[in-house]
Amino acid sequence: MIVEIVSTGTELLLGQIVNTNAPYLARKLNELGFDAVYQTTVGDNRRRMSNVLAIALERADIVITSGGLGPTQGDITKEVSAELLERQLQLHEPSVEHIRGFFQRRRLTMTNNNLRQAMMPDGAIVVTNHRGTAPGVIIEHNDKTIIHLPGPPMELEHMFEASILPYLTKRFGGQGVIISKVLRTFGIGESTLEERIRRFILAQKNPTIALLARSGEIHVRLTAKADSEPEASALIADLEASLREQINQYIFGIDEQSLEQVVGEELCRQKLSIALAESCTGGAATAKLTDVPGSSSYLIGSVVSYANRIKTEQVGVDAALLQEYGAVSPETATAMAQGIRSKFVTDIGVGITGIAGPGGSTPEKPVGLVYIAVAGPQGVVVEEEHFSGQRTAIKTRAVNSALDLLRRYLQTKN
Ligand code: ATP
Ligand code: MG
Question: Which of 53, 157, 181, 333 is 20 to 30 A from residue 402's alpha carbon, by CA?
């Protein structure tokens, strides 16, 4: 079943409000297995709205509109569609009663304008609005179905859940289900990742594969359509297994899982505590860890050891070592991780030091050079990273890389 979503309202075209109704309807319809493949937005203009509806009725089986059912002169959706379908508008008595009751309960005076909302096309199914006054409308016209929903999102969403969804499933039966699963990767570039799974991307049909880059992470979204949820899940599981053979080491989580959540879960599971010494990231890695509810059970604290004096006094880095290798070096990162671990008496210590730029670089130590060390019961690992971009981008990449190194440390040692 092809569906077109038509959003009406000049405010939408002017960019004065953000269209949330269309994405909402698209999500719901796709979940139900309908092919919601067209979206149109049109202002409160009779001629243009009529054209849009005529086009929609040609290419879609079901047309769902949002907005323009209210009492004002700008609210014309029903009039336009009634004219297009050559149906008369008649006063619908139960709707008049509903609207009157709505006003009485709120001690408001009803004006004649409000009766416009009770004018319904001949032969339409009237849908009660439990959250407002303007009823919704369903018109079955030849082999097409037109559904008019009110604009305010609260009203539209409630009406969709309460009345439209049951109507659609009853009338059109199961359309199958569509489900998606996102494999979240870190530490691999988009083109390299694509290269590794090219075979599957080229052969994709059901499930489909989409790659999305999100601040250093590449998300691989698998979407399957089948008659039932178990069948769709099985299709996804098969493809996921094949993809994992190629890229498993880069996959840190699924769907909504973030790096800091995965790290938090590992620390909890292994009952390990953690402390950090951060230089170029200025405490941002620690802040990320605290975004996870319950982080107080493993995060002990951190030191933003920007100046060398703080690295020695507060973190316990040997002044001679700093002198010899410099603040941005694998030796210093390691000493920071070990130092904070012993100062704060934790299982795991993390040290991050680097050059976020734009100043402070030397030919040997360019902007974007970052060392990250993790010290724990199984020894120390330190990684050298070269990031490009602006200062804030380098900091963000350093934070994410530190979290990913932590994740790999925690996952491989067990
Ligand atoms: P009303 O009875 O409130 O006039 P209506 O059905 O006539 O409702 P509109 O007049 O088109 O709907 O829109 C009313 C309000 O609903 C808008 O001012 C806006 O706040 C919200 N709205 C309308 N369309 C959308 C949309 N597509 N996405 C988000 N909000 C919307
Ligand atoms: Mg209105």
Answer: 181
